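Hi everyone,

Forwarding the result from last night's run.
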Amino acid sequence: MNPSARAVISQLPLALCLLIYNVSAHADVPVRSPLEVRAHVQSVQGNTVVLTADSLGRPLAPDMLLTLLAGDRAAALVRIDAVRGGQATGTVTESQSDTPVPPGLAGVAPCPIPVTALDGSAAHLALPLDHGLTQGTLLRVFRDGTDIGAAALSIAEDQPPSAVLIEGGAKTLRPGDVCYAVPESVTLPIAQEAAPPTSPREPSSARPTHEGILVSAVDGGDVYLWAPEPDALAASMERLSIIRGGECIAVVRLSADGPLGGKAESIKPGTSIAAGDQARPWAETDAPQAPAVAEAGPQPPQVAQAPPDVTPDTDAVPRQPAASPEAPSQGPARTSLPTDRPKSPWTSPPLGLSLSGPTGLLRIPNAEVQPSGVVRLGRVFVSPDLDRSFPGSRSRSQFTIGALPRVELGLAHYARFLEDLTYHGKIQLLPERDHWPALAVGTMDVRAAYGLQPTRFLTLSKRLVDGRLRLTLGYGHGGLGGAFGGVEAAVTRQLTLLAEYDTEELNFGLRAAPTPRIHIDLADVSGTLGGQVTYAFVIDEEDAPPRPVILSRPSTPLSPQALADRLQEAVCALGMENVRAEVGEGPSGQTAVVFYENRQYLHDETEALGQVLAAAARELPPGVARLAAIATKSQVPVLRVVTQPDGYVRFLSGELAPERYAGMLQVDHSSESPIARSHIVGRSELGNPTRFTADLAVTPLVRTLIGTERPTPDDPGATQSLAVRFSLRPDLSINLGRGLDLRYSHGVHVAGALGMGIDPYYASDAAHATYVFEPVDGGLARLAAGDFLGGRRGALAEGVVELGGDRLLLRGLAGRLTDLRFFDTRSYHWVYVGDVRYRIPSIHLVASATAGRYVGDDTGFTLGLRKYFEDTELEMQFRHSDYGDVLLLAGTVPIGPRSWPKPDRVRLRLGDRVRFGQRALLPEGGEAGSVTAASMVANQLEEFDLTDALLNRDRLNAAYLRVHLDTLVRAAQHVVSAER
């Protein structure tokens, strides 16, 4: 949204609704606008109401005043206080009766129509696609908050909507004006208010305004600002002071050119500049204590610190800064480096791993968890004499991950006389508050052998003395049975002293943290020395906010044929394949459609989508109402994105807030073109077809088996030893046409196994054909026959369909298979499996339930959770079938560069992703099991899942795109940079 429109929005609804209220007080019939914001009251508590935006209405905005309607009568006025997503909270300012406002009432407010560009005496308008207005509709026009007259709406074919001022004190409209569709007899008295110019660099001769200057984004040492009059500001001073809580925390030297902003000259130690901070003219007294001079060159992204009196959640870092002061980002929580948030200039005790695995002190866990997306690896060194804590152990390797907000999972590998693997997990039920401790429950040493008992625990932790101390109290059952407690004292930012009682002994130690990533622990546990070194990395890194992108677009209309040709050539130049461009008439006017296939950006399909949208929008002249990008795989459409070109360009330039633009995106899995009538197809011969092209991918594989079975009195050595095998798997894929592909795979042994052989339990050879088609719009089906990965042979049919928008997905699989590893090759069995998946987009989590008849005539069910951290996946499954119970922990990471060279007829590359995991058999009654049985329980066809084979629908859908809009901006930056 342009700045002038923002300045008017907060005033116009108030004045119009007051007028509506006054009229309705006498006539009981409010004046309605043909184009309006609509919502309904969801709940009421006193004078506070919660409203939900109507799916057919416009976005709600803070300070907007809505008229609540009881039928056709005005019942009350509500001022919007805050907006998050499609929901808003507001306060009742006036009511027609003394009774509370009932839920279910409708709320209305006028919808602003910004002027975006000039075309002679006519002004182009940013009308919504479903505006419903007709030729000649009268509009009231406001400039800088003042009513300047009336305009007539012009809607013509092959032209964007426009308006001409027919009554008022100015001859023409100009960018920054705002129009409203209201009855002709209504004049809206808007209070005069200075508004920011349309462009951040629009010349202004006004006296500089130093009020309301805000930080809009931070990119390392670069600070970007928003101001009502940017040019006057830049010309009047060289420095600005960044203010938080009335205190100067940094000084910024303004740049002479480019966007409004500059370099951070000095920053108060322990703080960082964040979007939303205020700024004011620099004074000599504004100098942060002990300033840290910013180094030249790229700097790591700064993370906003919490106010002194607030202790926020360690993983609640906003993904993307606000695009404007009135449009804060509402993206999901993101992860920063694993550092504890300070309540004072002192650093709180760091979140280190205990020697037992979970986040904690030495042996005991505390109530803290690793932030979501943070992985911490540890190596423990202890004396063999420490039998009580680590019986017979020489060393221990640990892995702990913040799997979800306030949930951590992990495993530990013991290097004993024989190998063993144990698991641990912790859930923080309540985070720490000002007057309340953190509360967590968990378990550790699950599936342990050789004297270690599983432990279940409950623990409390609270920071005291300005955050320098963390006290922990808890109670455990099992290996850590009884009451325990401890204290962590931060002596300096790098050194913490530890003392604890582990239900039997007093233990002491220290934790050195030279960086937030590296921790070094030294401990005296039960009179025996030990230690640990841990390293942390983030698999969900917070990206620096992207800079605005300005797309240069043609100013004159093109013929449909010329436009289709230019679109096809532009997308082909990106390296996309199977490109086809169409131009025709859609329901809202001229529409451009681009079909493409991506084999360059294999980590994230969003990068390819962003480049296609940017390259196409750059070729669209005024008059094109809609742009559609349809991604295909094996020439079969799998994703459709439809947007308004003008809104998309405004979003890239920073004029339209991300959450506003997200509401303009239409994302689905339909293959239907939005062109309603006959269309023109691009004539370019550069379609880059993939028919008869070959793709050879080489994937490294590491296979491990670590026995986790309990020993029995008759067989104390039932636990298996470690086995490792390293191999390479070349995969050759050949496309024979739309939806038809051949695949051949063969495992190449590289390094031998240690301990026991593991070849019988996995087969990496495959040779099969697949055919993919669309039985229904938005659904996909696949037929396959041959040899599959994992040693399966036979024929399969699979289908997926979306239900309930982006949240629910159904998948079914049926076929005749045999398992070449364990059964006679002539012993084929029916396999039929049903899969239900439910997505929780806010935390990128997918819950699944699978049931049916698995490979090997085995029946049962599987419950699973899959969490996405940007390019990385973490999965946990519980499988129950006739063969037993199994717990599976697995992860998938991408390999190779983020982008590959433009594909040719034959391409050699690394595989897309590598999957790793560990299965633990859960035998009944403590009896010993076998690794062979664990690999057979509820056996499924790994790497044969239609939801992942063509396009991972759990990752790339409408909800995913709306919280990853910054990826579209970064992709557009590559397009603009390549053009230069």
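The two ends are 27 Å apart (CA to CA).

Cheers,
N.
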